[in-house]
Amino acid sequence: MSRPYEEILDGATLPRSAPGERHEKICALLHRELAIAVNGLAAVQLLAPRTAVPVTRGTLLRPDLALVTAATGKLFLAVEIVSRDDHKNDTVTKKEIYDQIRVPRLWMVDPRYDNVEIYHSFEFGLKLHGILAGSEKLTEKLVPQFQISITEIFSAA
User: Fold this and answer.
1) Fold classified for 21-155
2) What distance in Å separates the CA atoms of residue 98 and residue 142, rounded to the nearest whole number?
3) What is the number of other CB atoms lying within 10 angstroms of the CB of residue 97?
4) pLDDT digits (tens, 9 = 90+) for 17-42
5) Ranges of each domain in the chain
6) DSSP character at residue 64
7) Which alpha helices (DSSP H) does the chain contain, by range?
């Protein structure tokens, strides 16, 4: 079972509730599929779920899933699975931080609506690239072996 954890946002501790069962099933499925896809890719490393990732001085996030560049350890892809009872921290607060640090990719996996919002970084910050639902496929061109249907993500949980 999951445990509560903490993140640090601009020096302030943010206590987070233990993720629920559906959240954890989605996280496990995505982690397993991403692990298979990055196997053999020397440029990226998949971190364990909710590994502490320092992003700025005084800010330490624990994305549900994270890909970092192998050479620098810099966050490349952050995956946040939105919690029903704590969604503001993921959908507003942490998204603003990801925007400020110019994370190249952000996926907001939302079990409330069974969809995934895909954000790409560009010169002015994060931009919504698309919202996927139903039988659409979640892919990432920089991880070419990764592909999963949105239906599969949410039916596993």
Assistant:
1) tt1808, chain A (3.90.1570)
2) 19
3) 17
4) 888 899 999 999 999 999 999 999 99
5) 21-155
6) S
7) 21-38, 87-88, 95-100, 150-155
